[in-house]
Predict the 3D structure of the following.
Amino acid sequence: DARVTQTPRHKVTEMGQEVTMRCQPILGHNTVFWYRQTMMQGLELLAYFRNRAPLDDSGMPKDRFSAEMPDATLATLKIQPSEPRDSAVYFCASGLGGNSYNEQFFGPGTRLTVL
Amino acid sequence: TQLLEQSPQFLSIQEGENLTVYCNSSSVFSSLQWYRQEPGEGPVLLVTVVTGGEVKKLKRLTFQFGDARKDSSLHITAAQTGDTGLYLCAGALLTTDSWGKLQFGAGTQVVVTP
């Protein structure tokens, strides 16, 4: 049963600490997306990759956020230093870009609370 | 401002009633998806439509893509409590460099009570 996995599912940390979120995309998918969801803003695209290369990270605060794909089975999103306003649910999604369907499959999310 | 406007934002109905959720834009999309999200989980893909005027049915759910590929609707017949959730529409803009990038609507929260 192919699905996107994310770890950790929940993270509580203090302001100023580094946070790393991990995602394993569906095997064979060539695009990976990082989203942030809050009640106020809804689902916001932070960054996305095609064939492990960053395609667009304009939605991400560059001074504190970074996203990487060390290999095809792992995508990471780091926040350093974290701030209370970063509290949100972070989703990773993967898909097969380049076809007409543009479907994305989401992981269960990481709920981040920064105190 | 969101490229895709969903309405209504919130809908509360009783089991057995019908409901329709709308997703509108002034932009043209090459494809449009509907997702349902339940508390504590990620959005789950329900359907993808790619042809203007296309209608797809998934049991009691009917999805329609507008002729001009700028809007879509989701109709649920005889709603059940299991239909409760946040319904999100998302579309891929008709551009050459989107490569799978989606624009999401703000969502419609549907609550179905017994």
